[in-house]
């Protein structure tokens, strides 16, 4: 048992530049992985093309890394508060404070992707770097003595390489502290002392070899055996750090022995590195891949030489009776196909790569259990994984940037064309959500339980739409999610208006937990929705026409429709001094009674007369106009008769709608129009309109206009709309389908509705038919006595974010106990603890 110095080859570090004892200089970058997850095959081919450009332009000896790391709880909380003034948002400060313990208990992890490329050799006195590596000699490098010109030269070389790769992966130079963290992570992989990764540049811009801790690597864990003289054949490394006092880490290095003989289909069969995610337990799994490439012309020349050798062997065995002749013929055929591939594809290159999957855990048994689990997983993909005894330490060193080449690197290398290698797509992610914002849930697809941030208020500042839509069956979590987003908007200083259709008044009950909440009952109104009183005189007539014409079953081009249109024009309003709908009715009655009046006035007066007494919310002059300046406004519409989605979309059914349903639709639309006028204005406050009956906002002309305006212009005015529905195929059409980017699908057990939901999400079920079963049977499944959903399975959903990434997650709900109780609890009777609207009459 001992520590070999060249396992840590770093002599000095300047920022992201590493100077090794052998004289090699490398540049290391954070790599932004490309969205993958459940996206369509066409999108995945774009990801493959980006990897193809990457591999064809990397220099020999480049190192690709995927490191599993713990997320810093404080980093998660700092992302939650970006753009929020906590001094002004005390409720949200309480939410963030309560989130600390929850995030720490979940202990989320992530995968950090790194690229280390050689960019030159350090000038150390005339001996080449290759000679020093061959002789095993070392050199002390003083990074402070490296001239600015030399550093600029290394930077220029690195930038040239990155320019050829392209900007798909957005490489960012790592801080110097990353090298120290990476080493300590390797020494404590899977153990208690594994540190949190630095993901941003810190104060440590330079470092020397002194910052790297010493450790003992015991291959075979012989110190644990009582028979120390007998060699150990267990493929495990016991890593001990005597100076830290932490328990040792037990690690095993896996490497592919063989890939499927028939090839690996892309997409779906070649992404072999994705198998390691979601392993669970206390183990940590990293991967590293060293690559070298050979251009097509060199490959063709090499193939000619190999073909001649095969011909000579076949001639020598021409008279031999054995299977060798068939074997040689098969090899010649394969070589011919391989050669043709490079002749046809001139931009191809040959990739030699060595892959190591490093598994670490706190005990030998846990590590070996994880190793056996991985082997079984890979067996299903016809990939044979080996944990070679005697080469564990050498393979362990492959993941160390700047590590000199070792025999094991060549022994376990594989050679493939670059387009086949690109099908491995190592730099991909299943991440969903935004870079910052409140934590609304956890990522279930990646297996690391990363928090899902949804920056609903930050999106507008980044020129993105913050609107969202939700679908799912009854009891799947739609209303819970809508209330979660509403309370988050409120706590971050915004305001929301929610339309409550429930008979028990669940939104009114929820609003009782919010300060400055107003509840409005449209069937027993305390405020007026008269558009002539609500809106600016320049647009009030048009807004009134939008509501009154469908309500009276009038066409704007009919005789009666033309009459009311003229009366509600700016000229007509001024001439007849129309300031309310009641004024309009009185003017029509007066014009009807004048000698020689048109019959259309009588028709209009009779139509208006049928609703004047029925709809006080539009015609009662004693009610003050509604003002949406409260932090939370709940509009109760449970006593309104509303048409179904079928009645709205079927012409003959719509023409036969009773007056009560026409009234309900008109009032429902007016609420949306009022919210649009209030929220889509530059008042400096974020506004969210919440509608649980989506078809009333998407299937009518006025509702579709409201949805479109919120979706298109909400980002300009700090506003968004949140809609919920059971069937997105019928309800989420037009703007709701094309312009609302953030989409959430909760459990849907009906097969037709499940198909509609997944297709609306953007999933191609012909490519991924298994997702249909996952949504119907494996998303918050009701099980056991009473068919209840277990607490730990509630809130599971599929999500599509603003970048069109599709994944699977779980909604957490508020971290604050009082907020969680208000959202979760359902009232058994209608209570009215929230402020009623007479105060709106101020």
What is this entry, summarized?
The protein is α/β, with parallel strands linked by helices and 842 residues long. 39% of the residues lie in helices and 19% in strands. The protein is elongated, with a radius of gyration of 34 Å.
Mind describing the biggest β-sheet?
Answer: 14 strands, antiparallel
Instruction: Give average pLDDT, whole number.
Output: 85
Low-confidence spans: 125-138, 838-842
- Assign a percent range to the helix content: 25-40%
Count the beta strands. Answer: 30
Tell me the structural class. Answer: alpha/beta
Radius of gyration: 34 Å
Descriptive keywords:
842 residues, 12-stranded mixed β-sheet, elongated, disordered C terminus, alpha/beta
Task: Please describe what this structure looks like.
By secondary structure, the chain is an alpha/beta fold. The chain is 39% helix and 19% strand. It contains 32 helices and 30 strands. Strands 1, 2, 3, 5, 6, 7, 8, 9, 10, 11, 12, 13, 14 and 15 form a 14-stranded antiparallel β-sheet that branches. Helix 17 packs antiparallel against helix 25, helix 18 (559-567) crosses helix 21 and helix 20 runs antiparallel to helix 21 (599-612). The termini are far apart.
Present the secondary structure layout.
Layout: E1 10-14, E2 17-20, E3 24-30, E4 34-35, H1 41-55, E5 62-70, H2 73-80, H3 90-106, E6 109-121, H4 129-135, H5 148-165, E7 172-173, H6 177-187, E8 206-208, E9 216-219, E10 237-240, E11 249-258, E12 284-295, H7 296-316, H8 324-344, E13 349-361, H9 364-380, E14 384-386, H10 392-397, H11 407-411, E15 414-417, H12 418-422, E16 428-429, E17 434-443, E18 451-453, H13 458-461, E19 468-471, H14 478-491, E20 495-500, H15 506-511, E21 517-521, E22 527-528, H16 531-534, H17 537-551, H18 559-567, H19 570-576, H20 581-593, H21 599-612, H22 616-619, E23 624-625, E24 632-636, H23 645-649, H24 651-655, H25 659-679, E25 687-691, H26 695-698, H27 701-717, E26 719-725, H28 728-731, H29 735-738, E27 742-745, H30 751-761, H31 770-777, E28 796-800, E29 806-811, H32 817-824, E30 835-836
Parallel strand pairs: 4-16, 19-26, 19-27, 20-24, 20-25, 21-24, 21-30, 22-23, 25-26
Antiparallel strand pairs: 1-2, 1-8, 2-3, 3-6, 3-7, 5-6, 5-12, 9-10, 10-11, 11-13, 11-14, 12-13, 13-15, 17-18, 17-29, 27-28, 28-29
Helix pairs in contact: 2-3, 7-8, 17-25, 18-21, 20-21, 25-27, 30-31
């Amino acid at each position: 048992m001992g520590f070999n110095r060249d396992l840590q080859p770093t002599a000095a570090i300047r920022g992201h530049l590493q100077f090794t004892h052998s004289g090699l200089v490398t540049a290391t970058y954070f790599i932004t992985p490309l969205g993958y997850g459940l996206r369509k095959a066409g999108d995945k081919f774009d990801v493959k093309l980006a990897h193809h450009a990457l591999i064809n332009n990397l220099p020999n000896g480049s190192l690709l890394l995927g490191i599993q790391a713990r997320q810093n709880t404080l980093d998660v909380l700092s992302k939650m508060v970006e753009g929020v003034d906590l001094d002004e948002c005390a409720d949200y400060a309480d939410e963030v404070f309560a989130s600390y313990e929850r995030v720490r208990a979940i202990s989320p992890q992530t995968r950090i992707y790194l690229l280390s490329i050689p960019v030159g050799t350090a000038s150390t006195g005339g001996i080449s770097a290759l000679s020093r590596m061959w002789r095993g000699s070392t050199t002390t490098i003083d990074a402070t003595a490296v001239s600015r010109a030399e550093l600029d030269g290394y930077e220029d070389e690195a930038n040239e390489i990155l320019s050829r790769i392209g900007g798909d992966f957005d490489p960012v130079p790592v801080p110097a502290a990353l090298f120290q963290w990476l080493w300590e992570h390797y020494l404590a992989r899977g153990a208690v002392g594994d540190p949190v990764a630095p993901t941003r540049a810190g104060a440590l811009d330079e470092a020397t070899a002194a910052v790297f801790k010493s450790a003992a690597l015991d291959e075979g864990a012989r110190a644990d055996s009582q028979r120390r003289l007998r060699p150990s054949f267990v493929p495990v490394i016991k890593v001990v750090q005597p100076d830290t006092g932490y328990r040792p880490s037990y690690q095993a290095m896996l490497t592919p022995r063989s890939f499927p003989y028939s090839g690996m289909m892309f997409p779906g069969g070649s992404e072999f590195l994705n198998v390691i995610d979601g392993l669970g337990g206390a183990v940590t799994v990293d991967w590293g891949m060293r690559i070298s490439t050979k251009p097509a012309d060199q490959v063709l020349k090499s193939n000619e030489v190999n073909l001649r050798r095969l011909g000579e062997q076949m001639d020598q065995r021409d008279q031999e009776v054995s299977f060798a002749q068939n074997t040689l013929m098969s090899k010649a055929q394969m070589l011919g196909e391989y050669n043709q591939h490079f002749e046809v594809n001139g931009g191809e290159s040959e990739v030699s790569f060595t892959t190591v999957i490093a598994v670490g855990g706190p005990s030998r048994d846990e590590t070996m259990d994880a190793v056996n689990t991985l082997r079984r997983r890979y067996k299903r993909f016809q990939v044979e994984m080996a944990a070679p005894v005697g080469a564990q330490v050498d393979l362990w060193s492959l993941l160390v940037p700047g590590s000199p080449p070792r025999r094991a690197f060549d022994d376990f290398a594989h050679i493939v064309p670059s387009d086949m290698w690109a099908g491995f797509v190592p730099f991909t992610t299943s991440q969903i959500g935004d870079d910052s914002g409140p934590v609304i849930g956890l990522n279930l697809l990646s297996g690391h339980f990363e928090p899902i941030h949804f920056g609903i208020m930050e999106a507008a500042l980044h020129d993105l739409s913050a609107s969202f839509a939700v679908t799912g069956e009854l009891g799947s979590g739609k209303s819970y999610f809508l209330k979660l987003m509403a309370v988050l908007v409120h706590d971050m200083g915004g305001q929301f208006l929610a339309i409550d259709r429930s008979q028990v008044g669940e939104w009114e009950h929820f609003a009782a937990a919010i300060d400055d909440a107003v509840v409005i009952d449209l069937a027993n109104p305390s405020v007026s929705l008269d558009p002539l009183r609500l809106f600016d005189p320049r647009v009030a007539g048009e807004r009134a026409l939008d509501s009154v014409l469908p309500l009276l079953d009038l066409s704007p081009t009919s005789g009666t429709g033309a009459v009311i249109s003229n009366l509600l024009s700016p000229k007509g309003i001024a001439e007849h001094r129309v300031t309310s709908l009641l004024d309009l009715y009185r003017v029509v009655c007066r014009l009807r009674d004048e000698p020689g009046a048109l019959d259309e006035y009588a028709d209009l007066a009779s139509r208006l007369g049928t609703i004047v007494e029925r709809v006080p919310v539009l015609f009662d002059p004693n009610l003050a106009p509604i003002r949406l300046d409260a932090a939370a406004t709940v509009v109760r519409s449970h006593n309104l008769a509303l048409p179904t989605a079928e009645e709205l979309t079927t012409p003959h059914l719509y023409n036969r709608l009773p007056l009560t349903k026409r009234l309900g639709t008109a009032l429902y639309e007016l609420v949306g129009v009022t919210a649009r006028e209030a929220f889509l204005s530059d008042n400096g406050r974020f506004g969210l309109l919440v509608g649980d009956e989506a078809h009333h906002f998407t299937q009518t002309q006025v509702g579709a206009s409201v949805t479109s305006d919120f979706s298109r212009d909400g980002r300009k005015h700090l506003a968004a709309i949140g809609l919920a529905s059971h069937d997105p195929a019928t309800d989420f059409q037009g703007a709701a389908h094309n312009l609302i980017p953030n989409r959430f699908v909760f459990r849907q057990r009906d097969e037709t509705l499940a198909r509609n939901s997944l297709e609306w999400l953007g999933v191609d079920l012909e490519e991924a038919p298994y997702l249909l079963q996952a949504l119907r049977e494996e998303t918050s499944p009701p099980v056991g006595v009473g068919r209840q959903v277990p607490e730990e399975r509630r809130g599971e959903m599929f999500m599509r974010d603003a970048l069109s990434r599709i994944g699977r997650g779980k909604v957490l709900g508020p971290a604050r106990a009082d907020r969680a109780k208000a959202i979760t609890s359902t009232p058994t009777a209608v209570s009215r603890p929230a402020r009623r609207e007479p105060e709106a009459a101020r």
